[in-house]
Amino acid sequence: MPDSALLEISNLHVTFAVGRRRIPAVQGVSLSLRSGGVLGLVGESGCGKSVTSLAVMALLEKDTASVEGSVRLEERELIGLPYKEMNRLRGSRMSMVFQEPMTCLNPVLTIGQQIEEVLQVHQNLTKRGARDLCVRMLAKVGLPDPERVAKSYPHRLSGGQRQRAMIASALCCKPVLLIADEPTTALDVTVQSQVLALLQELQSELGTAILFISHDLGVIAQMADRVAVMYAGRVVEQGSTAELYANPLHPYTRGLLASRTRLDDLGSSAGRRLPSIQGNVPSPDQLPEGCSFGPRCQYCDGRCQRGMPELTDEGEGHLVRCIRAREIA
Amino acid sequence: MVKYVLKRILVAVPVFFGITFCVFALVMSMPGDPFSGMLDPSMTAEYKRRLLEQYGLNDPFLVQYGKWLVRVIHGDLGYSTAYKSRVLDIIGARIGNTALLGGVSLIISTLIGIPAGVSVAMRRNSLLDAGMTIFCFFGVSVPAFFMGMLLILLFGMTLKWLPISGMVVAGANNVGVAYALDVARHMVMPAIVLSLLNVASFMRYTRSSVIDVLSQDYIRTARSNGIPRRSLVSRHILKNALIPIITVVSLQIPSMLSGALLTETVFVWPGVGQLNYQAVLNRDYQLIMGIVLVLALVTLLVNIIADICYAVVDPRIRYS
Ligand SMILES: Nc1ncnc2c1ncn2[C@@H]1O[C@H](COP(=O)(O)OP(=O)(O)O)[C@@H](O)[C@H]1O
Ligand SMILES: [Mg+2]
Q1: What domains can you pick out in chain B, each with its CATH number?
Q2: In chain A, what residues touch B225 (CB-CB under 8 Å)?
Q3: A64 at the B interface (CB within 8 A)?
């Protein structure tokens, strides 16, 4: 199946019910990720990136979140899959690394106990076999003295070490898909680049496809071959990394890129004024009329407030959700 | 771990002195002196002074405390005027009965309260959850004596299924299994009354503790790794939820011993609670102080055990 995607998200909607309020956190997101590829998902905090990824993993609370649309992994529909069958896929075919290494590991179980359990749940392994594999996996993610790490409780490890252990636990069953939700955001800058390098290395070695989520375009540029930009629960621009960075079409993407450039060039070009984005991401239950980005957009005019623009193809799979994209380019 | 336990015990030592000091201060502040009630009222003031001197009752406070402490450590808690025997012997004869009733109730309430708390937490906002919430309200708000009377009326008087008072059938002189069964039959009702409140409170605390753990990131991690529900509950959730539950259970033990007062009195269970009630009625100060001291020491011991339990469950404490 050369053409069919490994992960195909189409028209995903996630709505939270909080008391009487209905919060449409994700509205019609469609993404596709080829086998072995890395798709970057970028956007400011609160844009619905995490909710999208949790919906894929079926980790949202059933009684507060309603998920609609379709998520297909290896051509198999995941939405509505019974709990037990979903559990058979989670940890073995698809797995996830989260943002907070300090809180994402169980404090009362050793690293070894946590990884070995994943191995034993999904593979027919003896205790001994699981132990050996676990230690080998810990060595693979670059932890020194893996035997000792396996016997350690999480609180004995540093943030970077814990994130490596998290990666080991996520990849120990060699899943075809890894979702990494801001995996380095909580780490120190130096540790951050080490962990990114590790992910790249493992990705090319194991051929795992990654849905890589970050609010940092720099990190995305380093990791991803395709990028989707999310704003207020919708994809506003999507394309290959090279194309999107060279030729950003949506004012939001341009703003993100600009604010990044400004940070990088700080000092050398301090006098130059670059367009950046004012204001904040609107809350999903208080979206403005028309284009959600309108109120923050310097190009916004009357036409933009008439309705949400469609996501349109501007050529070679470069999609953008802006009616003025071509005028302002 | 060994170091941790030793440290806990070491910390308990000053607490022990604090408790005994307070108890002694209470003994000393009792009105009158031990002889006024015991001896001939026509005793001369001179003779009484000599007696007080002889028994060291005119010594400075701290000296008296020291002597008293030495006596307590040797098991001499004083003499009960009402029972005409040593306080230690009276308490010793009763404490086993209280421990039996309290222990059985504690086991029952843990075995029911904790699993029930877990299962309602896993089905939060369901009909079961609502029903259990109402039960808990009922459980903590119905007074023990009222509940006891109700049971006596129903199972004792109306249905005549269970004996209504005491620990054994008077004069039956059963031995072995027959004795155990006799005690068990007598224990059913007081154990139910004593457990009811605990089941309710254990359940409430377990429920909120589990709900708290359920929202933790590491539970999401476990779910993202496809950990099956059984292991999720028994390994990943329960072990973490247990930490605050240990506190609640350990707080409940001493209050069970003293809280058994009403239950034991209603069912005439020959335990420390009932003894306490009698002692207060008789103004048997030495006995009251003895009971207070024993309860305080039990509390201290339970705290040490709870601290050890924390360390067993939580590695962060064990290795700190
Ligand atoms: N459980 C929830 N209940 C209600 N609203 C939620 C819940 N989880 C997320 N949201 C809302 O959904 C929006 C998107 O959140 P999220 O996906 O976490 O953003 P991010 O892009 O930073 O990962 C936010 O406005 C957030 O407040
Ligand atoms: Mg997020």
Answers
A1: 93-280 (1.10.3720.10)
A2: 90-91, 95, 117-118, 121, 169-170
A3: no
pLDDT confidence of residue B217: 94
Encode pLDDT of A59-106 as tens digits: 999 889 999 999 999 989 999 999 999 999 999 999 999 998 889 999
Q: How many Å apart are CA B50 and CA B260, to the nearest integer? A: 43
Which residue owns the Cα nearest ligand 1 atom 24? A46
A59 near B CB under 8 A: yes
Give which of A260, A255, A309, A300 is closest to A278, Cα–Cα: A255
Separation of CA A51 and ligand 1 centre (Å): 6
Q: Please compute the mean of the pLDDT values over residues A199-222 and round it to a whole number.
A: 92
Nearest Cβ partner for A90 among B224, B240, B319: B224
- A155 lies in some domain: yes
Instruction: Decide if B240 and A106 are in contact by the 8 Å CB cutoff.
Output: yes
Candidates A63, A84, A87, A108: best to mutate against B (most CBs of B within 10 A) is A108
Q: How far apart are CA B5 and CA A225, in angstroms?
A: 56
In a domain, A231, yes or no: no
Residue bearing tokens 């955001």: A185
Q: Is B319 on the interface with A (CB under 8 A)?
A: yes
B228 and A CB contact within 8 Å: yes
CA distance, residue B213 to nearest chain A CA (Å): 10
**pLDDT tens digit sequence for A262-320:** 455 544 444 444 456 777 888 888 888 888 898 888 888 888 888 888 888 888 889 99
- What token pair was written down for B1? 């771990």
**Which residue(s) pair with A209 in the sheet?**
A177
Q: Give yes or no for residue A58 having a pLDDT over 90.
A: yes
**Polymer length in residues for chain A:** 329
Q: Separation of A227 CA from ligand 1 center, angstroms?
A: 21
State which residues form the domain around A150: 101-174
Mean pLDDT over residues B257-263, rounded? 77
Q: What is the pTM of this model?
A: 0.85
Compute the distance from residue A215 Cα to the ligand 2 centre, in Å. Answer: 9
Number of domains comprising chain A: 1
Residue A125 counted as domain residue:
yes
Q: What are phi and psi of A320, to 5 degrees?
A: -145, 145
Got the DSSP string for A86-145? HHHHBTTTEEEE-S-TTTSS-TTS-HHHHHHHHHHHHS---HHHHHHHHHHHHHHTT-SS
What is the predicted ipTM?
Answer: 0.90
A51 touching B, CB under 8 A?
Answer: no
User: What is the C-alpha to C-alpha distance for residues A245 and A318, in angstroms, rounded to an integer?
Assistant: 11
B87 vs B33: CA distance, rounded Å: 17
Task: Give the span between the Cα atoms of A104 and A116, in whole angstroms.
Answer: 16
**A158 within some domain:** yes
- Which band of pLDDT confidence, cut at 50, 70 and 90, is reported for residue A2? very low
Q: In angstroms, what separates the C-alpha of B90 from chain A's closest C-alpha?
A: 45
Spatial contact of B78 and B278, defined as CB atoms under 8 Å apart: no
For residue A41, how far is its CA from the centre of ligand 2 (angstroms)? 11
Q: Is A246 in the pocket of ligand 1 (CB under 6 A)?
A: no
